């Protein structure tokens, strides 16, 4: 019985050894086949990559000096001349107050190509500029218009007051001449023409003084009110949504070939 058990154990060990050798042989054949397939697939691709050439791209972007771009969705640059592999490359251009331009530029092998980029103003900036001009126009009126009106009302009141004083003096002089005159004809002339005319001018001067004084008071109140309103007015704020859109596309590379997509906060400009 013990002998039978030993024979059975030896048989099982031999069978396991044979199975292991067969599995190793199959694994070797699979690795060899995979290596042949990879060599066949990547051989033409490697030859194609090795055969690629580089070209130079010169970027002339308007507005100059503030234009930035994102190259192939990864590299944020400001360079105006690049040496790139031949073929198409994606560029996303942006500048302050301008619209984002997403385009593809072709790089020619062993050649220099100039790309002229004209960035248009964004819709947000056009609307902001319109509101800002309206705000500045209204602010100029509030700042200079009301004081000019107050100054005009003051000058009008001063002239009216001077005319009132002058008309009153003329009436007083005629009244004195009427009392001291010894000529019956002169007294009759004073009574018929001069004194009534002087009294009429005095009434007109007094009326004008009252009206101009009221205008001066109203302009003073308006000046105070406008100053209080103007101190509370706020200029329009520019929110550059195109900048947030551009910076939201930026890929920030890190060590080891890794990276991260970076979002940004756009601060309003005044």
Report what the structure shows:
With 270 residues, the protein is of the alpha+beta class. It has helices at residues 2-51, 123-180, 184-232, 241-247; strands at 54-62, 68-71, 75-77, 81-85, 87-94, 101-107, 112-118, 251-253, 259-261. It has 3 domains: 1-51; 54-122 and 242-261, Immunoglobulin-like, CATH 2.60.40; 133-232. It is built from 4 helices and 9 strands; from the N terminus they run αβββββββαααββ. The strands form 3 sheets. The protein has a 4-stranded antiparallel beta sheet, covered by helices on one side. It has a 3-stranded mixed beta sheet with strand order 4-1-7, with no helix packed on it. A two-stranded antiparallel sheet has the order 8-9. Strand 8 (251-253) and strand 9 form a beta hairpin. The chain is rod-shaped. The N and C termini lie far apart (101 Å). Mean pLDDT is 78; it is low at 1-5, 14-19, 37-50 and 257-270.
